[in-house]
Structure formats: structure tokens, C-alpha cells
Structures
1.
Amino acid sequence: MYGRKVKLRFLFIVLILITLILTAFLVLKSLEENVVYFQSPSEIKLLSELDKKKIRVGGMVKKNSIFITANEVKFIITDFKNDINVTYSGAIPNLFEEGKGVVAEGFLKDRSLFSATKILAKHDENYMPPEVKEALGKK
Amino acid sequence: MFKFFEPNKIFQITSKAPKYVLFLFIVVLSVGLTEALFLSPEDYKQSDAVRIMYVHVPSAWISLGIFSSITLLSISGFIFKNKNFFLISKSLAPSGFVFNIIALVTGAIWGKPTWGTWWAWDARITSMLILALFYGMYLISWRIYESEEKVFKITTFITILGIINVPIIKYSVDWWNTLHQPASINILTKSSIHSSMLFPLIIMTAAFALFSLLIFLMKYNTELIKIKNKGLDRL
């Protein structure tokens, strides 16, 4: 079989790996707040105090909630449990649509009103040709 | 166990194989590009922007696959004191790095029209950037250190540090809220990508894998020539 040195080197690598995995786990666990790209409306509801800092809120654009005026867009971000009203003025990405994912960057006015400075459309993992989408819609 | 390695026999293969691999690569790439750019349908939502995916996703897969391979080879090389494993790792790394960069760049090109931004510091994109940095460190350390003993140890250490990042890349979209969408292709559950789009994706992956193989063979061939020039017939 293998020599003593080979076994020791194997053990050495295994110990390094275990240490690194545990370290990475602990670091990521404690940094979770900063690793997430956005918070959901439900998480905003649970905030103990309103932050003055810039944050991101993400979820679905609620059906029939987009309201466009001359210099402002208003819509509701929902995670199907809680809602948050968003006001925004500026360019909107092409994929911004009702019932689709969205991430808004900006400032919280209060627990249910968010003033966005930037809107990003979130694409989902579904890829299909238009005909298939139509066929699915008819069902 | 891995001691029986004759550079001469392998050299015969590595010096002849590239032209066949190149031919195969050109054939598969032409089929893949025709499928991806012309024959496959546009997406219901992002229309033609979906075609970027046929380059983006295979590049990301291959850069992850190559990094995992060089880690496994480096660790085995370290444990069994096998020089050949290190040379294979060294020859694999450049194409992995190139595909990593391609994945980042095509992602940015896709992100602008789809998300509305070139870059986002979300978990998937940032961890992919970290992988590119590890590739960079790995490639540079081969150039910095003259002594073989030293370079073998340092590159092994870099791959071990970097491999921790690989599962984070894979599962970042499931563990945290990210702007990047979750995986569309799942082995155990149903994939959320239509078969007419899955087909060109697989062909393009095969084409990129062949390209990596081609670059690997050429790099590895160079390493063998260096050994020959030193007048050694065994490693």
C-alpha cells in the first residue's frame, strides 16, 4: 500500500479542506446580510428600525399595479405575503412587466413606501419560444 | 501507482492529436453556431438576447469544470508526489481562465438589455469574479517561482483555497437572493428550458470542451518538449 508520508500528506490536505470549509461557512453566515442582493417586502416589514442607507427591495411586480404619469412610475412589489409601494422616475429596463421579477434600489420612506433611484428587471429561469408560451397560456 | 509514465509515448499522441481535435472542433462549432444563431427560436421574453446564453452558460460550465479538475490533479500530485499531474494542471488552466473571462463579459453584455445594468455585486457574479482572480493567481505563480518544489506547493494551495469558492458559485443562487436567475438545467428535476434551446446549448458546450482539449494538448506538448530538451526520458 501507500507509504506513511503519502498518508500524512493526504491527512494534511483533508485537515486544510475541513478548516477552510468551516471558516468559509462561518464568514458567510455572519455576513449574510451583505451577501443577499435584495430584501423581500416581508423582510422590510420585520425591520426593527428604518435605515437611512440605500437598500434594495426585490419581488414580483403586482398585477395591475403599474401606474405611469408624466414624470413618475408607481408600482407595487409583492412577495405574495406583503406588499411595498414604489415610486420611481427614470429609465425602465425592457423586461420590466407586471407579474415579473424586479429589484428596486433606493430609500425607504416608511415601511410601505419605497422611493427608488434605480430599477432592475430580474429574469427568471424559464426559457421557451413564444409559441410554447402561447400554448401554455391557453391551457 | 502513477510512476509508469513515459513522455515519449504520450508525446506521440500529443503531437499528432491537435489537428484532429481542431478539425472536430471546427465541425462542432459550426453546427453549434448555426443552431444557436439561426435555427433555434427566440425567447418569448428576451427575444434574441437569449442567444448570448449559448456562449455564456457553456463558458461558465467549462471554467468551473477545469478549475475542479486542476484542483483534483494538484491535490493528487501533492499527495503522490507526481510531477505529471502538475504539468497537466498547468496546461489546463489557461483555457479555464479564458472561458471564465468570456462568461463574465457575455454576462455583462446580456445584463445590460435584460436587467438594466452591466454589473451587479450579487453573490453569483461576485463569486465568479473571485474564481477569475484565483485563476489569475494560479497562472502567475507558475511564472514567478523557479523551483519546482515551491511552485507545486503554492499552486496546490491556491487551488485548495479556490475550490471552496466553486460550490458557493453553484449554490449562490439558491442560498441567497441574487439578481442572477437560478439554474434552468437540473439533473434530478425537470429543466425549465425548452428542448429547442437545450440542444444548441449542449452542442456549444461540446464545442468549447473540444477547444479546451485542443489548447490543453498544445500546452502539454510544449511541456513535454521542455522535458525532452532537458535530456530526461522519464519524469
2.
Amino acid sequence: MIRTVALATLLATPAYAGEIWVTNEKDDTVSVISTETLEVIKTYETGERPRGITFSKDYSRVYICASDSDAVQVMDPATGKILHDLPSGEDPEQFVLHPNDRHLYIANEDDAITTVVDTETRKVIAQIDVGVEPEGMAVSPDGKVAITTSETTNMAHWIDTETQKLFANTLVDSRPRHAEFVKGGSEMWVSSEIGGTVTVFDRDTQAEKGKISFEVQGVHPDRVQPVGFEFTAGDTHAFVALGPSNHVAVVNADTYEVEDYILVGRRVWHMAFNEDRSQLFTTNGVSGDVTVIDVASRKPVKTIKVGRFPWGAAYRPAS
Amino acid sequence: MSPYLTSLRAIVLREALRFVHQRERFVAALVRPLVWLLVFAAGFRAALGLSIIPPYQTYITYETYIVPGLCGMILLFNGMQSSLSLVYDREMGSMKLLLTSPLPRGWLLFCKIVGSTGISILQVYVFLAIAAGFDITIPPMGYVAVLPALLVAGIMLGALGLVLSSFVKQLENFAGVMNFVIFPMFFLSSALYPLWKMAESSTLLHDICALNPFTHAVELIRFALYGQLNLTALAWTVASAAVFTALALWGYAPARSGIGRKR
């Protein structure tokens, strides 16, 4: 009887063990963190200045923007070996994988273009002129719309993925950094680092639906700079990284109100959830570490040392 | 009931009665750490958060940092308060009554410490509860794990109070004790700032802090609040408690204390 119960408990324990992959901008490496032990278990070398990171749908390949190597590298996550490079245009900073698991939309910061690369043929299939210093990238869940935000032009550029042409440009606050489609693709959120806001757009009309401002107690407003953000299960809440304010804000995604601020490391940049979205991993650039937040209690649990200037983060289930 | 237990009961009951009758004192003792926590710490909110030191596993706010120090503050002030009451007892003559009991003085003094430490611990828990109300929390297990640490730290500081009371003969001199013992002990410790921060400004100050038994009492409480045992801090606290107890016993020795002798 005891054995049965023990076995049942064991089986009922969610097998959520996985890994968080973090790119270290200054170390030219990725650190792999176990979501179970919350320790760095592996470190792999990459090209120069790795920033954006994302996995293919089946997690068999990991794409890494090696910005200063002017390439998107494709790595085998099982061995850490670089399989090949993809043509990416100059200085790729961030990218997003189209839901077709094949097309990468890459922001080329220095060239003011968005490059679309076919990961199978390894060929550039389109280059789209966008604003100056493009950075944030997003694709709608239905794959029909891609977004590029440009840091200097302060715009979100709406791209029709069928024609690979811009069909709308919307102004946002100063220095947009990150974009994301939510609520089944009906809303599009953009964070503005210098403006200190997150703007919410209606996808169909491209009209502004709401704007979120932040205020961290004891921190000068200039240092409150929203960058990366991630949504909890069901898109009910957004966790917004506030850069050098060293805090992550918890925003109610329905009322657009900030409910909490969580203290993390210095210059928090991007984030990734574990599989069941019970833990959030934030990359803290200046302090060179990753803070683990317990999503339910909204409390930081542990901070893990990684390489210098961690930037991007992505989840992969353990092999 | 054995006379030992009778005396323990009587002395602890007397402490408890004093506590019940002086509710203002209880409130006043809580106001002090709360002012530190809610006013002082608020101003320094962003001052820390730059380094992770054990037992913490992530970045913390200043409020979180000073909670163990303020628990120590409650124990320290109460230890002193209880020694103050002994000086008062001496002046009023009730101490003479107590010490003429046939039981060993060591036992009587121990009962006294147990009584006052018990009250202090109660105050610490009320303080922690109020802090939790302001969302300054510690892991749930920490609230249990801290109990033995509070007991050891409380006994050490209570013994220190006894030592002082055996040397301070008059109530009026007590202000001196405040200035020369409590404040340096509190400020030259890790209660308000971590020792590495101290070392940045002066290594001498850092070394003084590292020798201060109150630092180790605070660190013992700090680690216990996070379910960890700091053996160095425990050893220092226990050793200090032993030294202070020995001194107190010597201070209250019939031949020395002046009790029963013409002053």
C-alpha cells in the first residue's frame, strides 16, 4: 500500500525538469541552468556577442544571434556543437521563429532592415526596410503578421508575412525594445525603454488600446526602463523587466495595472519561464546573474551566477 | 513541587506580571524596532541590493536585511531593561528578599534570565508578525527555526544585563549604561549594515564589529530565520553567554555583591 502511494506520488510529481539557456553577451557563451537544481550545469561557447536565443519547435536546434559575428548560429542543444551558421544580415540582435518553425525574422540593428531567413534552405528570402536600429521582433500566433520595433525611429513596423511588406507603422514611446502578441494574437504589446512605458495595440486596427507606466519606490524614474516581458499561463499577467531599476513589474493584462514589483539583479533584461510557468528566470546584465522568481508568490527565490552580461533566455525540456 | 521549580515559577510569574501590568512598556519596546523598520529602512530601501551574502540566496531589500538585527535589538534592550529592574529591585529592597532564598544564586539568576528572555521572544514574534503585515516575510520554516536562536541570544544578552546590574549600583547611573553599552553594541554590529560594507569604510571598525558578541547573536538569528545554522555565530554566542554568566555569578557572589552586607 505504502509502495503504491509512494509510486503514485512519484508519478504525480510533474516531470517539469528542464533547462534555461542564457546567452552571455560579454563571455561569448551560453549558460545552461537546470530548472530543478537551479544551478548552472553546462556552459557552451558561441560566436561573438550572443544575444537573442530561441529553440526550434521540437527543441532539436537552438538558434543564437551572434551579433558581432554577423551570424545566426544553429547549435545542437544535446552536444553544444555549432552545426552551421545562417545568413543573417549585419549585427543580428533579436529574432523570432515563425510558427511554421522554418522562417526566422531577424532584426539587423546596424542596417535598419529585417531579414527573413529560411532555416532549411539557409537562404535569405526577404529583406524589409524598417526604421533605424530595429530590435524587438514578434510574429502573431497565426503567422500572418510580424512586428519589428525600431529603437531610434520609435515605431512598431507591421509586416505582412505573405508579401513580406510593411502594411502599417505605429508610433510608440522612446526606444522600443521588445514586442509580443498576446491573447491569441488579438493584442500586441511593445515596451519602450526610455519612454518608460509599455504600449498595447489592437491587432486588427493597429490602434493604441492602452499604455502602462511604472513607478518603483525609491528608484529614480529615469532608471525605470521596461525591456523584455513575458506572460503567465492564460495571458492573465505580464512580467515586465525594468532594466536598471533592478525590478520586475507584474502587470494585470486585463486592467493594465501594475500589481507588484519584484527585486532582482542589476539591469534586468529578458526572461524565460519554465515549462509550467511556475518559475521565471530573469537575466541581470550588469550583475551577471539570473534571478529565479516564484510566479505564484511573486517572490525572488534564488539568484544564480552565470557569465558576464547575460542577455537572452529560452526554455528547453530536459532531454 | 521542588523548591527549584517553585522559585522558577515565582520569578517567571513575576516577570510575566510585570509585563502584563506594564503594557505600555511592551508597546514601547515594539515601537523602537518598528520605527527602524518602517521609517529608517524605507529611506535606505535601495541602498543594499548590490551583493548577495549568505544566508540570502537572492537580492534583498534593506527592510529584509535589518529584520534579524531588529529582533536582536528587542532582545538587547529587554536584557538591559531587565537589568535595570534588578537595580531598581536592589534599591527597593526586594532583591534582598530574593537573594536570601536558600537556593543557589546561580539558579535564581538563571530563573530571572529565563523569565525576561521569554517575554522578549514573545515581543520578537509580535514584531515579526507586524513585519509580515507589511510584506516583509521570511520562509515559513524560519519562524520555527529562529526560536532556539532567540533563546540562546536572549540568554546571552540577559546574562550581560546581569553583569551590568551587578556593577551599576544606582538607578541614575543607568543612562551611562545605555550610552556606553547598548548603543555601541547595536551600532558596531551587523544589525544595520553587513560587515563587508563596514570593511569598505574601515577595517578597524569591521574588526571591532566581528568581535562584538551582539554581531554573532544577530547572525545566529539571521541564519536561523532562513533555516540555516551558523556554527561560528552559535559558538561565539554560547561562549559569550558562558563568560557573562560567570561574571554575573562573580558579581552577585554574596561576598562581593554587598547584599546582606552593610553598604
